[in-house]
């Protein structure tokens, strides 16, 4: 489904799904509800890979012109950095502030970032 959408629409759909799925994961983790964590994870993986990642890659390749190889290499580099930084940051926040506060702060940052990107 995501491949048939324009890159902008695909990315926006992913950015709408992502904060909701993260909230489900965080709530499930804090409350000990495995089914919520699993459902949130399925939704988040769909949002991140299916919509945001592939939509973004498609958009980058659309504007890359004859530099598609360089553009995709740069996109993959930024994607891997983007996959790593949230995990490291959340771990540091958990060590400093505890699970509940860290997950809440990260969720608020995620929501804020998604809103900013969707609006632009």
TrEMBL record:
Lineage top rank: taxon: Bacteria
Residue spans crossing the bilayer: 12-30, 36-61, 73-94, 100-119
Record key words, sorted: Membrane, Transmembrane, Transmembrane helix
Coiled-coil annotated residue ranges, if any: none
InterPro entries noted in UniProt: MFS_trans_sf
UniProt protein name: MFS transporter
Naturally occurring in which organism (per UniProt): Litchfieldella qijiaojingensis
């Amino acid at each position: 489904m995501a491949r048939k959408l324009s890159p902008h629409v695909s990315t926006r759909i992913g950015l709408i799904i992502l904060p909701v799925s993260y909230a489900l994961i965080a709530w499930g983790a804090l409350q000990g509800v495995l089914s919520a964590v699993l459902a949130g994870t399925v939704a988040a993986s769909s949002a991140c890979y299916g919509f945001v990642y592939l939509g973004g890659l498609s958009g980058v390749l659309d504007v890359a012109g004859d530099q598609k190889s360089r553009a995709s290499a740069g996109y993959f580099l930024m994607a891997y950095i983007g996959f790593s930084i949230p995990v490291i940051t959340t771990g540091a926040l958990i060590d400093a502030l505890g699970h509940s506060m860290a997950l809440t702060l990260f969720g608020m940052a995620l929501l804020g970032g998604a809103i900013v990107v969707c609006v632009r």
